[in-house]
Amino acid sequence: xxxxxxxxxxxxxxxxxxxxxxxxxxxxxxxxxxxxxxxxxxxxxxxxxxxxxxxxxxxxxxxxxxxxxxxxxxxxxxxxxxxxxxxxxxxxxxxxxxxxxxxxxxxxxxxxxxxxxxxxxxxxxxxxxxxxxxxxxxxxxxxxxxxxxxxxxxxxxxxxxxxxxxxxxxxxxxxxxxxxxxxxxxxxxxxxxxxxxxxxxxxxxxxxxxxxxxxxxxxxxxxxxxxxxxxxxxxxxxxxxxxxxxxxxxxxxxxxxxxxxxxxxxxxxxxxxxxxxxxxxxxxxxxxxxxxxxxxxxxxxxxxxxxx
Length: 308
Hints:
Number of domains: 2
CATH topology of the largest domain: Jelly Rolls
Domain HTH araC/xylS-type: 189-299
InterPro entries: Homeodomain-like_sf, HTH_AraC, Tscrpt_reg_AraC-type_HTH
CATH class of the largest domain: Mainly Beta
GO molecular function, one term: sequence-specific DNA binding
Shape: globular
CATH architecture of the largest domain: Sandwich
Pfam family, one: HTH_18
Keywords: DNA-binding, Transcription, Transcription regulation
């Protein structure tokens, strides 16, 4: 079975610092931590996987971010955005310094649509490499958050929310995403967004004997209660790809994640993704990547032992 996303309780349980008293509050959870005070080597190993919370990290030091089906090398200073939809892990290559803040969606209820920002979208880029000047700017915001978190100001949570948006907006100004400017809210755009949300909800898969993810445009159209032609037209207009192409790309991404970060056999992965068997899966995989699943797994095998 696929591992459930790491909860906030599990996150704090495996680190050397105690969980804050407000972790169960109905107003949601927010915390900011200075890595100079909570060194990574003091923490227990954390496996690659999804987290049930958002995370923004400001890091100085060499490291590798394993994010979905990619590994991103960081040399120096960087800003990282992690979201509950994408499995990830941060592998330290030397000592690290900086800050990390964690929060759940409930903390931003009725205060902006945090998960709709490009930095938290599955297709977005999670890593922003920083100059010394940019690092200093973000560091000042994180230090302000740390001071605000520890203050007794009645409205400190509103200040913290605004500081998170400061970080997001500053990052987007550095490297605007193609969809930073909202497109007109047409009926087709709304259908495409609903389709992508439904597609993401198919993962992680539960194993060879669990229900496989939806595979065809008609299955998605049925779930969305629209005609398949309407879905196909909306997706093509919004994403410049066919519905089938988007589905197959997402299946391919999940296949690479499972091959790289799970101990499942090729057959278990094939059946869990809805293929008729390992042969059909192998043909699909090689057509997309010019490698067999076994070849890809051998290339990507490495032990991940730590995470922020």
